Automatic annotation (TrEMBL):
<feature type="transmembrane region" description="Helical">
    <location>
        <begin position="204"/>
        <end position="224"/>
    </location>
</feature>
<keyword id="KW-1133">Transmembrane helix</keyword>
<dbReference type="InterPro" id="IPR035906">
    <property type="entry name" value="MetI-like_sf"/>
</dbReference>
<keyword id="KW-1003">Cell membrane</keyword>
<dbReference type="GO" id="GO:0006865">
    <property type="term" value="P:amino acid transport"/>
</dbReference>
<feature type="transmembrane region" description="Helical">
    <location>
        <begin position="68"/>
        <end position="96"/>
    </location>
</feature>
<keyword id="KW-0812">Transmembrane</keyword>
<dbReference type="GO" id="GO:0043190">
    <property type="term" value="C:ATP-binding cassette (ABC) transporter complex"/>
</dbReference>
<dbReference type="InterPro" id="IPR043429">
    <property type="entry name" value="ArtM/GltK/GlnP/TcyL/YhdX-like"/>
</dbReference>
<protein>
    <submittedName>
        <fullName>Cysteine ABC transporter permease</fullName>
    </submittedName>
</protein>
<feature type="transmembrane region" description="Helical">
    <location>
        <begin position="27"/>
        <end position="56"/>
    </location>
</feature>
<keyword id="KW-0029">Amino-acid transport</keyword>
<dbReference type="Pfam" id="PF00528">
    <property type="entry name" value="BPD_transp_1"/>
</dbReference>
<dbReference type="GO" id="GO:0022857">
    <property type="term" value="F:transmembrane transporter activity"/>
</dbReference>
<comment type="similarity">
    <text>Belongs to the binding-protein-dependent transport system permease family. HisMQ subfamily.</text>
</comment>
<keyword id="KW-0472">Membrane</keyword>
<dbReference type="InterPro" id="IPR000515">
    <property type="entry name" value="MetI-like"/>
</dbReference>
Length: 238
């Protein structure tokens, strides 16, 4: 039945239908076992970097060590935002061996993705923190809280609500960007699609199928994002 349905498409032949059917499960499996865990691990590490960088950016401290750290943080953000993610991943995997640093494909991809997410995510988190009225900081100081106590108990919950939509979009974008890991030999979903297509040299149906699978996963992520936003809306309303 599925063969008949696929064969009804204008560009679909019996051979292409069989190719699409045979390639479906390997691509879905690669997404579940590699692409999604790769995105989650990179996002978690990237968010740790992003929070640390954002706190450096918004901290009122102006001693010499803070100024030096602030300078390097700005350089890091400028470099990451000013270069393609593909170049960053290739530098980690193909470039570092030139100085004696050898990293396996999956850790190299995670490092590249995490550094990228850390830079972009830090700007999102910084903007979310700055969106909280200054009076909230002053209220915390008034009742005797330190800077970090005020941030953790008062500012962070409000800033997190503001940051949820853009950070959710960042994760969805990261999931799609895991396809770049194929250039460092990580067998994620897109690399499997390439392998399937290379067996027949018929790329169009396989790449369309891969795009539809990416879209299906992202559609699920869109639903999760919408529910998260509603949950935090109710939390803020209380």
């Amino acid at each position: 039945m599925l063969n008949d349905l696929l064969a009804a498409l204008p560009f679909m032949t019996d051979a292409r239908a069989e190719l699409v059917i045979n390639g479906f499960w390997p691509m879905v499996k690669a997404a579940i076992l590699v692409s999604i865990p790769l995105a989650i691990a990179s996002f978690v590490i990237g968010m740790v970097i992003a929070v640390a960088v954002a706190l450096v950016r918004v901290s009122p401290s102006q001693h010499i060590l803070h100024r030096l750290l602030l300078f390097w943080v700005k350089v890091y953000i400028s470099i990451i935002r000013g270069t393609p993610m593909l170049v960053q991943i290739c530098i980690v995997f193909y470039g570092l061996p030139a100085i004696g640093v050898f990293i396996d494909p999956i850790p190299a991809a995670i490092i590249g993705f995490s550094l990228n997410i850390g830079a972009y995510g830090s700007e999102t988190i910084r903007a979310a923190i700055l969106s909280v009225p200054k009076g909230q900081w002053e209220a915390g100081y008034t009742i005797g809280m330190t800077y970090m106590q005020t941030f953790r108990r008062i500012i962070a919950p409000q800033a997190f609500r503001v940051a949820v939509p853009p950070l959710s979009n960042t994760f969805i974008g990261l999931f799609k960007d895991t396809s770049l890991a194929s250039v460092v030999t990580v067998t994620e979903m897109f690399r499997v699609a390439q392998q399937v297509a290379n067996m027949s040299y018929d790329f169009l149906p396989v790449y369309i199928e891969a795009g539809l699978i990416y879209w299906g996963y992202c559609w699920v992520l869109f639903i999760i994002q919408a529910r998260l936003e509603k949950r935090f809306d109710r939390y803020v309303a209380k």
